[in-house]
Amino acid sequence: MFPDCKRILHLFSGSVEQDDTFDINPEHNPTYIADAHNLSNVVKKKYELILADPPYSNEDAKHYGTPMINRNVVVRECVKILEKGGFLVWLDQVYPMYRKKDLTLVGVIGLIRSTNHRVRMVFIFRRE
């Protein structure tokens, strides 16, 4: 969907292998090791695309051994390191709050893994 994007950050990356990754768990060898609530204090460059797949619930956070996030804070942090015209792709079960002066919702994709599983949504935002 974003073939022209070169500067990509995968937030909550886990073991994903990509150029720039951000995770709180050092065992995954991310580019940046920190809490996403402090994203803009750690990352000092701008990205064209941020892919975010945070824990969806306290149960998920416990399963992955990470703390649950405050979505509002993390979305605001993403805006700070996202270049104008760039995209934030947020996978979650909750429609995150955002400031309309900063982001525009440009797409929503439903993700169904299989029957009897929680439905997830991909929210695509563009930075104003």
Shape: globular
Give the full name of the CATH homologous superfamily: Vaccinia Virus protein VP39
Low-confidence stretches: none
User: What is the fold-level CATH name, i.e. the topology?
Assistant: Rossmann fold
Q: Look at the structure and give the mean pLDDT.
A: 94
Biggest β-sheet strands, sense, barrel: 7 strands, mixed
Query: Helix/strand/pairing class, anyone?
Result: alpha/beta
- The helix content, as a percent range, equals 10-25%
Counted up, domains total: 1
Distance between the termini: 19 Å
CATH architectural name: 3-Layer(aba) Sandwich
What is the total tally of β strands? 7
Q: What is the succession of H and E elements?
A: EEEHEHHEEE
CATH class: Alpha Beta
Q: Helices and strands in order, then pairings?
A:
Layout: E1 8-11, E2 20-23, E3 32-33, H1 39-42, E4 47-52, H2 58-64, H3 71-81, E5 82-92, E6 103-111, E7 120-127
Parallel strand pairs: 1-2, 1-4, 2-3, 4-5
Antiparallel strand pairs: 5-7, 6-7
Descriptive report:
By secondary structure, the chain is α/β, with parallel strands linked by helices. It has a single domain, classed as Vaccinia Virus protein VP39 (Rossmann fold), CATH 3.40.50. Helices cover 17% and strands 34% of the residues. The chain has three helices and seven strands. Strands 3-2-1-4-5-7-6 form a seven-stranded mixed sheet. The relative contact order is 0.18. The mean pLDDT is 94.
